[in-house]
Amino acid sequence: MIEDDLHAAFARHEPLTPSTGPLRVAIDRLAAVRRRRRQRFQAAGVTLALLGALGVGVPQLRPDRPAADPLMSGKPADAQSGALNVLLLGVDGFGEQPPYRLADSVLLVHIPADRSRPYLISLPRDLEVSIPGRGIDKLNRAFHSGAGEPRPDLDAGYDLTRQVVADLTGVRVDAGAVLTFAGLRRITDAVDGVEVCLPEEVRSWHTRRVFPAGCQRLDGASSVDLLRQRRYLPDGALDRDRNAQRYVAGLIRAAVAKDVLTNPVRLNALLSVPGKGLAVDDDGLPLTRLVAVLPKLKSVDPVGLSLPVGQPVDDRTLLPLDPKQGRAFLAALREDRLAQWVAQHPEQVNPAR
Amino acid sequence: MTYEEFADARLAPLLRYAVMLTGEPHQAQDLVQETMVRVQLNWRRVARADSPERYVRRMLTNQYVDWRRGSWVRRVLLRGEPDASVPVPTDHAQSAVDRDQVWSWLSRLPRRQRAALVLRYYEDLPDVEIADILGCAVGTVRSSISRALATLRAEYVEA
């Protein structure tokens, strides 16, 4: 009899079923949105191959339209001549969900036209910049300003930061990416950990970890931990930027050691790791097209540099651009003669290991 | 078969099925919407299945059973606890109370058990097919149905 009651109860509640018309429309609309988003991720995947080639493949990556178009148009990647500048933003915030707040690591990857080697240029987060719509503020605030609240938009945060960086440096930003803690963790684990060589011991403010001086292999979680640290470091955020460069150098070495860079199959495998958001399905664009840039690089050993900054004025925490060295550095960057500048200022190079 | 043809034929039955699972029209819509978006985006894979209809029913059932893990659930839960909108019987005739109580007791069952009941007593599917949809053995289907029925019988006694 309970079976009969169940039958009856189900049948009686059939009229609760809403009509399918609006639902059908909603399904089509949502599917269209997700398809567009997936296409963007596929396009992003191509640029990701470029970054992956440099050992900095990350999720949340997106190409910038004007410069990316020739890359997407089917020309071989090595048709891309001239210097390339890729903007990487490390954003604090946990997991995949908001809140993302500040872009505390701002790294410009510069590949000179002669393809001699990549340059990693850290822009200090406390750098004094002019942010459209906000006035004079710290560089890391640009991301926050653009992303907005209460549901921050990574794309908008990136766009505003890119504009600020382009205005500041005077170089064209060809592509870029936003790297979250989760993305950092996954890419690290995908290459079985990254060897980072520290000049001095680093104690974590957030966990009990202690990173001894010297070389050590870090898994994803400890890499994230290391790259969050600034409080106990003598030079604060500037030292943290240097650690970020050491991490990227180690990531490149890991990718080289695994033969990821020159092997399209392995590169593809690595790039499929970062997560659901980046799922490149079987009818996506060939990821490997941009790997053609790789053999052109004479060395994948990066040179780590920081934008020269001066002392803060008064009691403020804003760091001004070093009036002399900073301008000379930016001029060298714009004119693609960093090798010469580095030769003249060897003390500005951060030892990567 | 194209996605359009599939949706023309199967959307309404799927929505009814989802109503029986969730007991509530809004959640049913969300459940079907989420499932059908994925069906549309992966239509080639769905169409390759022996029975696309059963494949999609399995997707929808999994989505329902696993819904705490999925992201869409968070959105759904904002609407209140499941089955909050089911009318609580108060001053109906005794027989009506009994009838509506069966419906509300269903909401307290574990989701897999409820799905098994819906598949057998609403969809009238054989146990083999239920097992296929739930991704378990036929024996497991039978035992979860009998456990669910035992729970409901106990409610009857208390009521």
TrEMBL record, chain A:
Supply the InterPro entries for this chain: LytR/CpsA/Psr_CW_biosynth (IPR050922), LytR_CpsA_psr (IPR004474)
At the top level, the lineage of the source is Bacteria
Q: Which residues form the Cell envelope-related transcriptional attenuator domain?
A: 103-254
Q: Which residues form the signal peptide?
A: none
Q: Write out the similarity annotation.
A: Belongs to the LytR/CpsA/Psr (LCP) family.
Q: What is the name listed in the Swiss-Prot or TrEMBL entry for this protein?
A: LytR family transcriptional regulator
Organism of origin: Micromonospora arida
Q: What is the lineage of its organism?
A: Bacteria, Bacillati, Actinomycetota, Actinomycetes, Micromonosporales
TrEMBL record, chain B:
Q: Which GO terms describe its biological process?
A: DNA-templated transcription initiation
- Which superkingdom, per the lineage? Bacteria
- Keyword annotations from UniProtKB, A to Z: DNA-binding, Sigma factor, Transcription, Transcription regulation
* Domain RNA polymerase sigma factor 70 region 4 type residue range list: 101-152
Q: Does the keyword Transcription regulation apply?
A: yes
**Does the entry feature the keyword GTP-binding, yes or no?**
no
Q: Which Pfam families match?
A: Sigma70_r2, Sigma70_r4_2
Q: Which InterPro entries match?
A: RNA_pol_sigma-70-like (IPR039425), RNA_pol_sigma-70_dom (IPR014284), RNA_pol_sigma-E_actinobac (IPR014325), RNA_pol_sigma70_r2 (IPR007627), RNA_pol_sigma70_r4_t2 (IPR013249), RNA_pol_sigma_r2 (IPR013325), RNA_pol_sigma_r3/r4-like (IPR013324), WH-like_DNA-bd_sf (IPR036388)
Pinpoint the RNA polymerase sigma-70 region domain residues: 12-72
Question: Which GO terms fall under molecular function for this chain's record?
Answer: DNA binding; sigma factor activity
Q: Which family does it belong to?
A: Belongs to the sigma-70 factor family. ECF subfamily.
- Write down what this protein is called: SigE family RNA polymerase sigma factor
